[in-house]
Amino acid sequence: MACLIPLSNVDADLIEQLLDRAFGPDRHARTAYRIREGTDWLEALSFAALDDEDMLVGTIQIWPVALTDPTGRPHPMLMVGPVAVLPEHQGEGYGKALMLASLEAIAQTSPAGGALPQVLIGDEDYYGRFFGFSAQHTGKWYCPGPFERGRLLARCDNPAVLPEEGMLGPWLTEAAARDLAD
């Protein structure tokens, strides 16, 4: 069974190698990378899976993003993913264990008012059945690049707080936005 550890305990080069094996070296061209551009994954919510021989076999990263509504107001969210498992270990439960660990960490670190909405790009049949993600509220949401509308999924304790429409992108503090502009 998987041993889960904080992703911050794993060498960055090993994480990059795993992501390349799981998604291919052209993964940086994907829309998800554009959504979280300029941000860092959240250490307290991101994990690595090790096999019985303590080899890295999977990772999950959680990112601060926002859906900016038509008035220009950003609505903070958490982007789940990538969830990456080495091809030879897919189907062994590592991805599911990583998802459950991150979603539990999100719940535990959230104020009493509930967790920030979570968003991901993935298969609704899988992520809906096991984790409650749905495309029900994302029909008028946009991404900075090509995406399949039915694969843009959200999970939220109170869907009434979700904007009906908007553009997903990085959730930057004012200081971070200034640094990027310089």
TrEMBL record:
Could you tell me the superkingdom of the organism this chain comes from?
Bacteria
- Domain (N-acetyltransferase): give its ranges: 2-154
Which Enzyme Commission numbers does its entry carry?
2.3.1.-
The transmembrane residues are: none
- What are the protein's UniProt keywords? Acyltransferase, Transferase
Question: What is the protein name for this chain?
Answer: N-acetyltransferase
Stored PROSITE patterns: GNAT
Q: What GO molecular-function term can you cite, just one? A: acyltransferase activity
User: Which SUPFAM superfamilies has this protein been placed in?
Assistant: Acyl-CoA N-acyltransferases (Nat)
